[in-house]
Amino acid sequence: MASGVATVWMPVEDMSRALKFYGETLGLKVKSEGDDWSELDANGVSIGLNGREETHGEHTGGAVLTLQPDGTLYDELVRLTDAGVTFVGEVSEHPWGRIAAFKDSEGNDLQLFEPPSE
């Protein structure tokens, strides 16, 4: 039985670019840096940037990293847009919450998630 998520690995082509995106743009704390492996903290979940794995190129599908902003989804959407992030489509509304999809600097799929207000 799995008891939680230990680390999420994201393939990257350009470690410097990826570290800037995850550290500066998203605001995650960089725990370690290396040419082939760097690690960030996302509120207790480690995100590993893996330069040793091949990136997916132009293919779609696969894993999606979903992030929950500190404030509202819309405030974070504005902040990231001002930082140069392009969102894919509109914010989608669901009974279980709101989702705003975007890509990281390496083409990996990311989302902002906000649970429904009670």
Automatic annotation (TrEMBL):
Q: Which Pfam families match?
A: Glyoxalase (PF00903)
Name of the protein in question: VOC domain-containing protein
Q: Which residues form the VOC domain?
A: 4-115
State the InterPro entries in the record. Answer: Anthracycline_SecMetBiosynth (IPR052164), Glyas_Bleomycin-R_OHBP_Dase (IPR029068), Glyas_Fos-R_dOase_dom (IPR004360), VOC_core (IPR037523)
Q: What is the lineage of its organism?
A: Bacteria, Bacillati, Actinomycetota, Actinomycetes, Mycobacteriales
Gene3D superfamilies listed in its UniProt record: 2,3-Dihydroxybiphenyl 1,2-Dioxygenase, domain 1
Organism field:
Mycolicibacterium hodleri
